[in-house]
Amino acid sequence: ARNCSHGLLRLPMISYDAVLLILVCYKAYEHFKLMPDKAWSGARLMNVLVRDSVLYFLWYVARHVVTLDAD
């Protein structure tokens, strides 16, 4: 029989990162709306931060899903 308790222990960590990702995206959207010059380097920096946050979250979740099979 397969033990799924390890997978359930990872759920709070993934949920916490999901909340952080949502907050990052929300603040980035608010910031982007208020910026008059979208080509300013601050806007590009914000785009990089959001992109990297999303990629990190996807990698994090994928890593945990893949390691569920190893447990």
Q: Residue share in helices?
A: over 70%
Order of helices and strands: HH
The unreliable regions are: none
Distance between the termini: 12 Å
Described by strand count, sense and barrel closure, the largest sheet is:
none
Strand residues, percent: under 5%
Instruction: List how many beta strands DSSP finds.
Output: 0
Mean pLDDT across every amino acid position:
79
Question: Over all CA atoms, what is the radius of gyration?
Answer: 17 Å
Approximate shape: elongated
Structural class: mainly alpha
Count helical runs.
2
Q: Would you write up a description of this structure?
A:
The chain is mostly helical and 71 residues long. 85% of the residues lie in helices and 0% in strands. It has 2 helices and no strands. α1 packs antiparallel against α2. The model has no long low-confidence stretch (mean pLDDT 79).
Task: Give the structure's gist in a few sentences.
85% of the residues lie in helices and 0% in strands. The protein is mainly alpha-helical. The longest helix is centred in the first third of the chain and has 30 residues, at 5-34.
Which terms would index this structure?
71 residues, mainly alpha, 85% helix, 0% strand, elongated
Mind sketching the topology for me?
Elements: H1 5-34, H2 41-70
Helix pairs in contact: 1-2
